[in-house]
């Protein structure tokens, strides 16, 4: 089955700096890569996603890049703000029958004011 | 907010008991997936329901079962609870497209504690 590894597990940045979180996946059939933000006591919130026919996608301060050959994808947050502090999860999915998402282990991002 | 609701918010059970968790999907969605999230870990896929039938299952034993109703809401049932079943149970709703992986929107979860 699919295996998703996520790094780093914790990340501290100064307000205004950029943050980068990286994930690798193992199953070449995976073609959908969402990123979720989870705040304490809440469910995961979708912040951006990318499909395998696209190499990069941007939404305001958030961008995701995908390298299918190397089987890795990354989340980039620019001009970080204290409210960006949360746990971020990457995931991989496919359009096969199961359609399940396989999640990484999460990154605790702390933005220091 | 996604419009996916779950009940109850918190639940405490003892080992060996049975529990039922409920999920209402977002308007317009026809598929519900259930995930288990242990403390400090990423969500793990339990199973998915589409057209009231199980449409894929993760590595969970048969004592984890589910239902989907005609209004697309869903239930997760866990029998013979074990201490390791203590976790946040997440429901995600999506629209089955048939040709591409569906975007899944999560509810707030049900925190289950097994004593």
Describe, in plain words, how this protein is organized in 3D.
The complex is a heterodimer of chains A (113) and B (115). Chain A has strands spanning 4-7, 10-14, 19-25, 32-38, 45-51, 56-59, 62-67, 72-77, 86-93, 101-103, 107-112. In chain A, the strands form two sheets. In chain A, strands 2, 4, 5, 9, 10 and 11 form a six-stranded mixed β-sheet that branches. A five-stranded antiparallel β-sheet of chain A has the order 1-3-8-7-6, with no helix packed on it. With 113 residues, chain A is mainly beta. Chain B has no helices and eleven strands. In chain B, strands 2, 4, 5, 6, 9, 10 and 11 form a seven-stranded mixed β-sheet that branches. In chain B, strands 1-3-8-7 form a four-stranded antiparallel β-sheet, with no helix packed on it. The chains are: A mainly beta (113), B mainly beta (115). Chain A binds chain B through residues 4, 6, 31-32, 34, 36, 42-46, 49, 51, 89, 91, 93-95, 97-106, and chain B through 2, 4, 31, 33, 35, 40-45, 48, 55-58, 90, 92, 94, 96, 99-109.
Q: State the helicity of chain B in percent bands.
A: under 10%
End-to-end distance of chain B, in Å? 32 Å
Q: Report the biggest beta sheet of chain A as strand number plus sense, adding barrel if it closes.
A: 6 strands, mixed
Q: Radius of gyration of chain A from the CA trace?
A: 14 Å
Low-confidence stretches of chain A: none
The SS-based structural class of chain B is: mainly beta
Oligomer: heterodimer
What is the percentage of strand-forming residues of chain B? Answer: over 45%
Q: Based on Cα principal axes, name the global outline of chain A.
A: globular
Please tell me how large the radius of gyration of chain B is.
Answer: 13 Å
What gap, in angstroms, lies between the N and C termini of chain A?
A: 41 Å
- What portion of residues of chain A belong to β-strands? over 45%
Number of strands of chain A: 11
- Write down the overall geometry of chain B: globular
> Helical residue percent of chain A?
under 10%
Give me the number of helical elements of chain A: 0
Q: List unreliable stretches of 5+ residues of chain B.
A: none
Q: Which class of secondary structure composition applies to the elements of chain A?
A: mainly beta
Integer average pLDDT of chain A: 94
């Amino acid at each position: 089955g699919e295996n998703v590894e996520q790094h780093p597990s914790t990340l501290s940045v100064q307000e205004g700096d950029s943050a980068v979180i990286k994930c690798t996946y193992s199953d070449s059939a995976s073609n959908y890569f969402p990123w979720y933000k989870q705040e304490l006591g809440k469910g995961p919130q979708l912040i951006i996603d990318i499909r395998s026919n696209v190499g990069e996608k941007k939404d305001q301060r958030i961008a995701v890049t995908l390298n299918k050959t190397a089987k890795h994808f990354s989340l980039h947050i620019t001009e970080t703000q204290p409210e960006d502090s949360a746990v971020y999860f990457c995931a991989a999915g496919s359009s096969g029958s199961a359609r399940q998402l396989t999640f990484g282990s999460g990154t605790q991002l702390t933005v220091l004011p | 907010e996604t419009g996916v609701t779950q009940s109850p918010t918190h639940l405490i059970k003892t080992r060996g008991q049975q529990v039922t968790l409920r999920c209402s999907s977002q308007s317009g969605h026809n598929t519900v997936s259930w995930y288990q999230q242990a403390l400090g870990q990423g969500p793990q896929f339990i199973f998915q329901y589409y057209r009231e039938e199980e449409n894929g299952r993760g590595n969970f034993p048969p004592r984890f079962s589910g239902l989907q109703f005609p209004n697309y809401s869903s239930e997760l049932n866990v029998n013979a609870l074990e201490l390791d079943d203590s976790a946040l149970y997440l429901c995600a709703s999506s629209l089955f497209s048939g040709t591409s992986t569906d975007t899944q929107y999560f509810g707030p979860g049900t925190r289950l504690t097994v004593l």
